[in-house]
Amino acid sequence: MTRVRGIDALRGIGALAVFGCHINQYWAFLHLPGKLPQLSALAAHGVDLFIVISGFCLALPMTRHRPAVDAIPFWKRRALRILPAYYVALLAAFALAALPPTWPLLAQSPAGGGDLAAYALFVQAWIPSTTGAINGSLWSVSLEVHLYLLFPLLVAWWRRWGLWSLLAASFLLSVAWSALGPLAPGTALGYSFTLPDRLSQFVAGMCCAWVFTHRRTLQRRWLVALLAVGLVMAAAVDTAHIHLGASVVWAIPCAAAVLLFTGPVGDWFAHTPMDGFGLRSYSFYLVHQPVIQLAAPLVALLPSAWPVYWLVGGAVVLLVTTLVARVLYRWVELPSHRLSRKARTGRAGVEPVGG
């Protein structure tokens, strides 16, 4: 199966959305007017989009035949693909979060060995006190690892009972899990950063892969309408601070966006710089938060006006983050991708699905 045009660009859009959200979150001096802070906060759901895209890409090669996955080789390829860049970015962020000159910019207290161990073992989302101890954005990589570990079981369910029953079960699990949050505040019970809550989004992406393969004639106007209605519903849920089933609601516009970008919309974006940016969006995501936090004191020296902070400071920090991500991608992520492809084909080959 060839690369699906547009999916990398969509991933890049999600990364930029999260970047914009974190500028507002970590630059306390910004003081956006009106409803801009709330709109900025909605951009954090670019992570939801990542999860749906992940389910789409992993399931797509299985949609034309009886789904099956060989667990050990699959886990090996996934590890080669994401772990090297993750650990390099983690060690750099840990040094910054532990050293006296920089830790006050990144965390509430200096990072310690326990925090590093939680991140290295991908359990920081299950220990809320460590989630933001080094680089809070890395919780989603922890979640991806858990989804990869579970993927062979999801495929087994798919083979036995069908994909749509898996979607229904994952939706029920997400709603039930989110309902547990008020029972044990401050713990991982009901925590939205964990697998029971976000599995619904990953499975929604798997369903998008099936729809893309078997029903390619979905009309664009219906997808646009679903995206618009889904965004309004999801924004309303966030605005009302409704946590029950919020991940399920956000799965709707994200799934619509994925299907929309598998057609002419994605073809158009594939000819823009966003496509190349999307290829490096994983490295960009890994490093963006520390760069934003470290740059805060310098950006605060600009003339005191939020448009200046956004247009000048934001543009410079975006450029710096992109350059750092490019180095990480060129020297760490790209070589690990090549190893992953060799593990799949036994030689240098082309990854079946984009991203």
UniProtKB/TrEMBL annotation:
One GO cellular component term: membrane
Any GO MF annotation of the entry: hydrolase activity
Domain called Acyltransferase: residue spans: 5-325
Annotated TM spans: 12-30, 42-62, 83-106, 126-149, 161-179, 199-215, 222-242, 248-270, 282-302, 308-329
Keywords attached to this entry: Acyltransferase, Hydrolase, Membrane, Transferase, Transmembrane, Transmembrane helix
InterPro entries (alphabetical): Acyl_transf_3_dom, Acyltransferase_3
Pfam family, one: Acyl_transf_3
Biological process per Gene Ontology, one example term: lipopolysaccharide biosynthetic process
Designated name of the protein: Peptidoglycan/LPS O-acetylase OafA/YrhL, contains acyltransferase and SGNH-hydrolase domains
